[in-house]
Amino acid sequence: MSVLVSNLQDEVTVDDDLAEFLSGVAEAVLKSEGYGEDAEVSLVLVDDTYIRSLNSEYRGIDSPTDVLSFAMLEGEALPGQEEELILGDVVVSVQTARRQADEYGHSFRRETAYLTAHGVLHLLGYDHQEEEGREMMRLKEEEILASLNISR
């Protein structure tokens, strides 16, 4: 199992400990859903300006958001992909995560862990457009965070 973490911003300090922590969260989600060593996810940490441009381009919403997921499981595998299962990219705005952590009264680590779990679940097909899906996704997020002893 491979989680590639890239920090493309300099607004919020991201050290190796945080990167490893978030990688562990992503791996926990994948394991909980039955994915093995061949699964690969990219986690990209960005600022509000960067995620706003992605949100505008891909969703038509010209404002920052907390997390975006870009799944790669749609369509047929590309030649050479048979050996690895590239699930996609999760993009997290650490600026928004910091604001939301303050707003919700919990730590920045907890908020980034939640957003990472949320984003990876989206890669795996979870959605929250309908109430039933929202409840299932929320339950899965909380189960994963609890299994890692990440509390509010």
TrEMBL record:
InterPro entries: MetalPrtase_cat_dom_sf_prd, YbeY, YbeY_CS. SUPFAM superfamilies: Metalloproteases ('zincins'), catalytic domain. GO terms for cellular component: cytoplasm. Binds 1 zinc ion. It is found in: Cytoplasm. It is an enzyme of class 3 (hydrolase). Its EC number is 3.1.-.-. It comes from the Bacteria. Zn(2+) binds at residues 118, 122, 128. GO terms for biological process: rRNA processing. PROSITE patterns: UPF0054 (PS01306). One of its GO terms (molecular function) is zinc ion binding. Pfam families: YbeY. Its cofactor is Zn(2+). Keywords: Cytoplasm, Endonuclease, Hydrolase, Metal-binding, Nuclease, Ribosome biogenesis, rRNA processing, Zinc. Coiled coil: none annotated. Single strand-specific metallo-endoribonuclease involved in late-stage 70S ribosome quality control and in maturation of the 3' terminus of the 16S rRNA. Belongs to the endoribonuclease YbeY family. This is Endoribonuclease YbeY. The lineage of its organism: Bacteria, Bacillati, Bacillota, Clostridia, Eubacteriales.
